[in-house]
């Protein structure tokens, strides 16, 4: 700014001096015109004619200079405003600023609550994240943690496995780097595992016992039998693979999908307490589990595919809020022809699949109902 001031002042003085010189020259020419001979007068007149076009240029330069001076004043005013803002911000301590942020987050959450759960209307084309592992397996991210947590868990195989790989980020998972290993105290069965709020929920091998394994403490927090649930390939999905018990998470919490002899092999959907693994409520969907390729929960609705092979589609939906069902016809592109794991992540609103040694995701399209303050 000081350099601009100096240059502006110097150039303005030059303009003023030049302008005065030209005006003085014009006056002298008029006074001395009679004493000059024709040749000298013509020479001076020609010089004057050459200089005359500079007059409007000089006027414009003066105008530009005034604009620069005005701009300089605005910069000074802006600097003063910024200083005032800085002093005002300094008046708040960390706790006050944190409280203001929490209040804004609460308001945002209240706005998001107006966007109700939706009905599935479409599934995108598959997006292949990685090709690794055997034909069967599961992979997932935490369905509840804050979005800043980008860890990925990877479990290859469908029975007797105990090794869980935890990758720091999705990029690390893609490259196969930066991971730690968890060795489960009990082997798993099937591929219907889910990570929810820092814990892995899975079916203990050769039993109908649900296990909750906490990653941070590397210990089993609780295990409980799902009374009457089939296991050990008694009531699997159509592809087999000890897929008798399938854990899921949606916007409403933790679920278990299985069947029993009492339900004649039809899919049972149960709400499960994530702390105790106690079954809170169950629904008999009436859909035979062995005829289902895979299934997943969205907003309290169970969606079932009619096959695990190529040509599969989302064929059946059971609504737990009304205990009703309908047959659907939602295309589902099974790119690698053998899906052995299919789960919905409500935090990311995508489907995770393990498809013939490929880890794949699908975006979903939901039809939302906007809740107004007058509605319950």
Give the SSE order as H and E letters.
HHHHEEEEEHEEEEEEEEEEEEEEEE
Rg of Cα set: 38 Å
What is the 3D form?
A: elongated
Q: Tell me how many strands there are.
A: 21
Strand percent estimate: 35-45%
Tell me the major beta sheet.
5 strands, antiparallel
Low-confidence stretches: none
Short characterization:
Helix content is 28%, strand content 35%. It is of the alpha+beta class.
Structure, described:
- Disulfide bonds join 117-299.
- Keywords: Coiled coil, Disulfide bond, Glycoprotein, Secreted, Signal, Synapse.
- The chain has 376 residues and is an alpha+beta fold.
- It has 2 domains: 2-89; 115-370, Lipocalin (Beta Barrel).
- The chain contains 5 helices and 21 strands.
- Strand 8 and strand 9 (209-214) form a beta hairpin.
- Helix 1 packs antiparallel against helix 3.
- The two termini are 61 Å apart.
- 29% of the residues are buried.
- The model has no long low-confidence stretch (mean pLDDT 85).
Quickly list its features:
376 residues, four-stranded antiparallel beta sheet, Lipocalin, alpha+beta, coiled coil, 35% strand, 2 domains, Olfactomedin 2, synapse, Noelin_dom, elongated, five-stranded antiparallel beta sheet
């Amino acid at each position: 700014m000081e350099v601009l001031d100096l240059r502006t002042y110097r150039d303005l003085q030059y303009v003023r001096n030049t302008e005065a010189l030209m005006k003085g020259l014009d006056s002298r020419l008029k006074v001395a015109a009679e004493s000059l001979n024709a040749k000298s007068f013509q020479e001076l007149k020609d010089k004057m004619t050459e200089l005359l076009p500079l007059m409007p240029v000089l006027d414009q330069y003066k105008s530009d200079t005034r604009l620069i001076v005005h701009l300089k004043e605005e910069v000074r005013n802006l600097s003063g405003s910024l200083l005032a803002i800085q002093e005002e911000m300094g008046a708040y301590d960390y706790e006050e600023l944190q409280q203001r942020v929490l209040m804004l987050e609460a308001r945002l959450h209240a706005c998001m609550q107006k966007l109700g759960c939706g009905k599935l209307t479409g599934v995108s084309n598959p997006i292949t994240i990685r090709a690794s592992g055997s034909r069967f397996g599961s992979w997932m991210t935490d369905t509840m943690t804050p979005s800043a947590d980008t860890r990925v868990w990877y479990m290859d195989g469908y029975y007797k496995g105990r090794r869980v790989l935890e990758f720091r980020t999705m990029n690390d998972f893609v490259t196969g780097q930066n991971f730690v290993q968890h060795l489960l105290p009990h082997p798993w069965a099937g591929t219907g595992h889910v990570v929810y709020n820092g814990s892995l929920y899975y079916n203990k091998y050769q039993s109908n016992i649900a296990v909750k394994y906490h990653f941070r403490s590397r210990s089993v927090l609780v295990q409980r039998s799902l009374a009457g649930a089939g296991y050990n390939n008694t009531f699997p999905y159509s592809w087999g693979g000890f897929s008798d018990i399938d854990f899921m998470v949606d916007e409403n919490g933790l679920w278990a999908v299985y069947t029993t002899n009492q339900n004649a092999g039809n899919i049972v959907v149960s709400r499960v307490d994530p702390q105790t693994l106690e079954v809170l409520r169950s629904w008999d969907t009436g859909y035979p589990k062995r005829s289902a390729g895979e299934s997943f929960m969205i907003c309290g609705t169970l969606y079932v595919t009619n096959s695990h092979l190529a040509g599969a589609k989302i064929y059946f939906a059971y609504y737990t809020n009304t205990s009703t069902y309908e047959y659907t016809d939602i295309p589902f592109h099974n790119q690698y022809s053998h899906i052995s794991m299919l789960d919905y992540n409500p935090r990311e609103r995508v489907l995770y699949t393990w498809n013939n040694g490929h880890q794949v995701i699908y975006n979903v399209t939901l039809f939302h109902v906007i809740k107004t303050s007058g509605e319950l």
